[in-house]
Design brief:
This protein has a seven-stranded parallel sheet with strand order 3-2-1-4-5-6-7, sandwiched between helices. A six-stranded parallel sheet has the order 10-9-8-11-12-13, sandwiched between helices. Helices cover 48% and strands 16% of the residues. The chain is α/β, with parallel strands linked by helices. It folds into two domains: 175 residues, Rossmann fold (3-Layer(aba) Sandwich), CATH 3.40.50; 189 residues, 3-Layer(aba) Sandwich (Rossmann fold). The protein is built from 17 helices and 13 strands.
Length: 390
């Protein structure tokens, strides 16, 4: 009697690397969308808590890769490159059906180049910022990537004439944040009075950012409180460590009596309740724009990192709302220009000028609608053909 065919289909294997908190969220949504189409797929590599809740196997803690700034990266260089070499060796041996690098281009492009050379399809989720830096960066992307999943509508054109496929998938924050948010209801939820002005302070999510930004933000708040005594400040912080850094800055600058509420997370609520936000440059600037609140953008880093960045030819804008608008919608103050006096003046101008606030809100609403694309499903649709070939 012939033996029954007991061979089951081989599970699809999808390797991923997402080292930042924002990348972890992007990747988790993509995993969820892919599982709806290919429930047998296995996901592994390096990822955070949100990915792991979707069944992702992380071979190293994602925090090992969450280092920002040139000087900071150099301090951890040996450990990071060691992890990357070990992961490459494993992936070349196991040959996943596709590799998806989620942002983190410094880490992922090196890995993707070697995997692509070995015949493993490579997808990079979040286009490296060739629109901000010199386009020579394309020379590094083309040999590394088969397919780019772009968050912004102007990015696919940048890859025209290259062998890299680029799909615009929108930004997940635009899907998650409602098109309209009730400020009054949010204030009631936070037990804030409806009348007095509210300013959200977002000094960063990393300890390295608070190291450079906390005292500047506290000093700015002191100046604003002197000029607008009725103001209340909301400060969402993501961890005990960053909260301690901010509290230390309050103590050091003798600002303990500021009318201020510190929050664990809940950045979107803090922004929604505010009239104006002061935000450290990064994804939080886009979140503020999508919530529809005017903002002032500030950023500081180590002097050495700043000198390197200046040489690399950054665009006139660093804040995502300005890049998407193609002009200065939100004032930007970087490094030595990010003084408490400059920031307090800019925030105060927005606080007192209702016409500018209304015009800014209209521009941000237009950006929100353009970025609202059901990102996870669009990204999954771009990945699925590679799995069908497998």
């Amino acid at each position: 009697m012939p033996a029954a065919d007991s061979a089951a289909p081989r599970a699809i294997r999808i390797a991923m690397v997402a080292g930042e908190a924002s990348s972890d969220q992007l990747a988790a949504h993509l995993i969820m969308a892919l599982k709806a189409h290919r429930p047998e797929a296995r996901f592994y590599g390096i990822g955070g808590a949100k990915m792991q809740r979707e069944g992702f196997l992380s071979l190293w803690p994602a925090e090992k890769l969450a280092v920002r700034g040139y000087a900071e990266v150099l301090r951890h260089y040996r450990e990071i490159t060691g992890i990357r070499r070990q992961l490459l060796k494993r992936l070349l041996k196991e040959r996943p059906d596709v590799f998806i690098g989620v942002d983190g281009s410094d880490f992922n492009l090196w890995l993707e180049k070697r995997l692509k050379r070995a015949g493993i399809p490579t997808i990079h989720f979040v286009s490296p910022s060739i629109w901000a830096w010199r386009k020579e960066r394309l020379k590094k992307i083309i040999p590394a990537v088969n397919h780019i999943l772009a968050l912004y509508p102007f990015e696919p054109e940048l890859y025209s004439g290259t062998p890299v496929t680029c799909s615009y998938v929108g930004h997940p924050l635009a899907d998650m944040i409602p098109l309209q948010i009730d400020q009054r209801a949010t204030r009631e939820h936070l037990n804030l009075e409806a009348g007095p002005p509210v300013i959200a302070l977002l000094p960063g999510s990393r300890q390295s950012e608070l190291h450079y930004m906390a005292e500047t933000f506290v000093a700015t708040a002191k100046l604003l409180h002197q000029r607008y005594p009725a103001v209340h400040f909301l400060v969402p912080l993501v961890s005990r460590e960053t909260r301690l850094q901010f509290e230390t800055a309050l103590w050091k600058l003798k600002a303990d009596e500021l009318p201020l509420t510190m929050m664990f997370g809940h950045a979107a609520e803090a922004i929604a309740a505010s009239d104006v936000a002061l935000v450290a440059s990064g994804t939080a600037t886009l979140e503020t724009a999508l919530v529809g609140r005017p903002l002032v953008i500030a950023y500081k880093m180590s002097p050495w990192s700043w000198r390197l960045m200046r040489r690399m030819g950054y665009l006139p804008w660093v804040g995502l709302p300005n890049i998407l608008a193609g002009r200065f919608v939100a004032p930007e103050f970087l490094q030595d220009d990010a003084t408490p006096e400059n920031l307090a003046q800019a925030v105060g101008n927005l606080l007192t000028d209702r016409q500018v606030r209304a015009a800014t809100t209209r521009i941000f609403a237009s950006i929100h609608r353009r970025l609202r694309q059901n990102t996870a499903e669009k990204a999954a649709a771009a990945v699925l053909p590679y799995l069908q070939e497998a």
